[in-house]
Structure formats: structure tokens, C-alpha cells
Amino acid sequence: MDHRRVTWQVRERLNWLAWLLDSSIPIPGTRLTIGVDALIGLFPVIGDAVGVVLSSYIVREAAALGAPRSILARMAFNVALEGLVGVIPLAGDVFDAAFKANQRNVRLLNAWLDAPRAAQRSSRAFVAALVAGVAVFLVVACVAGFFIARWLWNWLGA
After folding, report:
1. Which tens digits make up the pLDDT trace of 10-33?
2. DSSP the chain
3. Residue 26 forms beta bridges with which residues?
4. What's the rounded Cα separation, in Å, for the pair 6 and 83?
5. Cβ(21)–Cβ(35) under 8 Å?
6. What is the C-alpha to C-alpha distance for residues 42 and 30, in angstroms, rounded to an integer?
7. Single pTM value for the model
């Protein structure tokens, strides 16, 4: 079977899945949409876990198509962010409906398939910024923890 045809079929399937999960249900009286993922997310913890599993399928398919690690890292970040914020009751569901991680991930994959070099450069910059942000967060958390521990030590009179 022709590689381009297989890739096109996968792209169509992932576009449909992302639409189903993120935008398949119109909200009456508005131009806004939600997807099945937002409805599943209404079930605390279990619904969010199911949503992450469904979203991870798109990342797995991207890996099977040969997407570079930088693209896969961005996609995984989108899924993780949606999953973590989704755990927060109500606010997480609103975030899930607005963020639309699956459609973001399909756009990332399609951009890479259409222009591999350009998409890869922007993803590498994102991954570098993400690593730097996590490092800064860890340093700030450690410094804050030190000062809190010191304050508690003095407050307890030790």
C-alpha cells in the first residue's frame, strides 16, 4: 500500500477523533462547542484518566508516523496539562473544553507532516523553554521551601 495513502488515512482518522473529543457537540445558542472528552471529564478522576488515555492514542499514532521527539514532547505536554488541570472540579472541565488538546496535537502533527523542518525547529524551542521553566520552578520551590522551613523552625522556637 502507498505510504502517502496510509498517512492520509491516519491523518483523517486523527482529525475525526480530535473533533469528536474536543468539538463535536455544539452548545445551543452559541458558536462554542465541546467534545466527548469534556463530558467524560465530568466524572471525577476516572473520566479524566479515560480522557488522557484517549488523547494518548493521538500521540501514539504520531510516534508511529515517525514524528520527532520534540513534537511528541509538545503533544505529551498538551495531554498532561489537560489531564492535570482536568482533575480540578468544574474549572478543569471548562479548561478542557477551551484548551482542546487533541485538536492542538493534530495541528502539530499535520504541521510537521506538511513541513517537517519548520515544525521541528519551533518544537525544539518549546521543549527548551519547557525544560528551562521546569528548572526555574524547581529552584524557586527549593528556595521557598528553605525559607518556609527556616521560618517554621524559628516560629516553633527550636
Report:
1. 999 999 999 999 999 999 999 999
2. --HHHHHHHHHHHHHHHHHHHHHSEEPTTSS-EE-HHHHHTTSTTHHHHHHHHHHHHHHHHHHHTT--HHHHHHHHHHHHHHHHHHTSTTHHHHHHHHH-HHHHHHHHHHHHHH-HHHHHHHHHHHHHHHHHHHHHHHHHHHHHHHHHHHHHHHHTT-
3. 33
4. 30
5. yes
6. 21
7. 0.74
